[in-house]
Amino acid sequence: MEKIAIVTGATSGIGEAITRKFLSDGMRVIITGRSSEKLDSLKVEFGDKVHVLCFDVRDREFTKLALDSLPEKWRDIDILVNNAGLALGLEPEFEGNFDDWDTMIDTNIKGLLTMTRYVVPCMVKRGKGHIVNIGSVAGDAAYANGAVYCASKAAVKTLTDGLRIDLANTPIRVTLLKPGLVETNFSNVRFHGDTDRAANVYKGITPLTGDDIADAALYAVKAPEHVQIAEILILATHQANGSTIVRKV
């Protein structure tokens, strides 16, 4: 039987790559995001294999309405991928932008919690399911000028571990993926559209791609039922941790 996955932030980067990887493996995917134009484009490309839900995970009420609107044949979700997330700004904590902080915390932490609260109870009721949370190497230790983003990803790590504990008496598995330097539109978003500054993030190193993270996600969900891939840290070859990157220029 086809598995049904739901991927937040499916319109670009890691989320889109995971969507494509799952579809190529024969799954059906509920794709979510804020860009109706991009979602509609993916719907045209993949047809009945995807179902579109356009909403912002920061809006708890609208998120529930969107999930409640799912047709019967899309309701039995097997895999939840909490991918929606972002970094905004790169300045000292004492000079940070309040709006940037709110957006990161509301998306990276509260959005993940909202999706978990609405989707996982149905998995528990059915006695099957898998949650994949996209964290970051940034959640392991703070780096200069990125404290709030790092804190939000540390929260993802803690929430994922806590969920795994809370579900240990069920067959439901919980996986945390912690990417390092991945070349997506992540840096462009962080620097509010400054493409030159964003490009410098990847200068002198071959970064990971969204496909690399999607490979890890598929590996985790395809593991035998008695195997729980709890956590995977994925780094570029010349990256040792969140702040140690050797660039060849």
Largest sheet: 7 strands, parallel
Rg value: 17 Å
Report the count of strand segments. 7
What portion of residues is helical? 40-55%
Shape: globular
Strand order of the largest sheet: 3-2-1-4-5-6-7
The averaged pLDDT comes out at 96
Oligomer: single chain
Order of helices and strands: EHEHEHEHEHEHHHE
> What is the tally of helical segments?
8
Class inferred from helices and paired strands: alpha/beta
Name the poorly predicted regions. Answer: none
Q: Separation of termini?
A: 50 Å
Q: Which percent band covers the strand fraction?
A: 5-15%
Outline the structure in words.
Helices cover 42% and strands 14% of the residues. The protein has helices spanning 13-24, 36-46, 60-68, 98-126, 147-166, 186-190, 195-200, 210-222, and strands at residues 4-7, 28-33, 50-54, 79-82, 130-134, 173-179, 231-234. A 7-stranded parallel sheet has the order 3-2-1-4-5-6-7, with helices on both faces. The chain is globular, with a radius of gyration of 17 Å.
